[in-house]
Amino acid sequence: MKFTLLFLPLLAHIVNSQQPAIFDIGTYGGKPNANIDEALLSAWKEACAATTPSTIVVPRDTYLLNQVTLVGPCKAPIELQVQGTIKAPSDYTQLPDKNGQWITINYVDHLTISGGGIFDGQGKEAWTKNDCGKNPNCVKLPLNLSFNFITNSIIHDVTTKDSKNFHVNVIGCKNVTFQHFTVSAPGDSLNTDGLHIAKSEGIYVLDSVIQTGDDCISVGDGMKELHIERVTCGPGHGISVGSLGKGATEEDVTGIYVKNCTFIGTQNGIRVKTWPSAPAKLKITDLHYEDIIMDNVENPIVIDQEYCPWNQCKLDSPSLIKISQMTVKNIKGTSASPVAVSFVCSKTVPCENVEVGDIDLAYNGNQGPITTKCTNIKPNFVGKQNPPICANAAQSS
């Protein structure tokens, strides 16, 4: 089985001859339909101090939880097994911490989160307050799950639902896998990225379903070796590298692999987006998109180096970010717009070493023939291209 092969090195560290000690939140006063802040924190404190593997159990039922931060390092592998549903307050003002997080886990090695349960952010009320795209002084709404400096860990068979903001934030992590992971939110839920991953290395998102109102997965700066395989995305805005470039100190992105994924009714499929008139000069390199199905996707394949939502910038100064070493192969399905492929690269640093092969996309509409748009790029082609890509590309002078 792929699961066994993939996690054998990880499980070799975790599996112990002893059965893990069980820390049931009920033992610490956690009751259904009541707040479990203190019960969860008390169980975590004891489990984290244990010198042998431990499992914290949230049994099948519904529980209420305010903002909590679970902190390591722990003395042995630790598992949070959520069998029931944990609900955040629906009123975001009841979460007093202004860090923008509901459940935060920091500095843990060999963490497992499992159990088939649900982290329910109850975000419907908060989505009406989200105007951060237009208002720099907007209300900072909490994320469902924030993982910071987590290593050698796996999050599997759990659901994050209706987050008030991003569902999952992954920062400073290494060798972490999300498998059989579900993100669930309506297509009109604002700024509810499924997973935002940045400044991390060796992150895997596998065999998962992401339905949300923004990017299914967004990649921030400093990302190395991200593998996304067998993921179904939609509704949502696709899988995006970026947006990047607004911060002068942003770090390079390298080694992004998206394979055997399906996009259903999304705004975008695969996308790389950078800001013009911005200071960052990082490099985006070693991007690989292969064996992907597009099902009525509005913008199936996109490089956008003029990303400027709500006119927050000027286009007169091109992006300074270099995109190179990119492959786009075996992309099939249907586009909901006549522009199936859009490669808009920077005039200052044109895209280089982009290979496109075996594209077969049909237009689902009646607004003219299917086309492509290409500026400041000269792709290398292998196999068949339908529609013809970059036939009349505008190149930088």
TrEMBL record:
Pfam families named among the record's database cross-references: Glyco_hydro_28
Signal sequence region: 1-17
Classification of source organism: Eukaryota, Viridiplantae, Streptophyta, Embryophyta, Tracheophyta
SUPFAM superfamilies xrefs: Pectin lyase-like
Localization of this protein: Secreted, Cell wall
Species of the source: Forsythia ovata
Record-level GO BP terms: cell wall organization
Catalytic residues as annotated in Swiss-Prot or TrEMBL: H237
Family the UniProt entry places it in: Belongs to the glycosyl hydrolase 28 family.
Protein name per UniProt: Pectin lyase-like superfamily protein
UniProt entry keywords in alphabetical sequence: Cell wall, Cell wall biogenesis/degradation, Glycosidase, Hydrolase, Secreted, Signal
Main subcellular location: secreted
Record GO terms (molecular function): hydrolase activity, hydrolyzing O-glycosyl compounds
Domain of life: Eukaryota
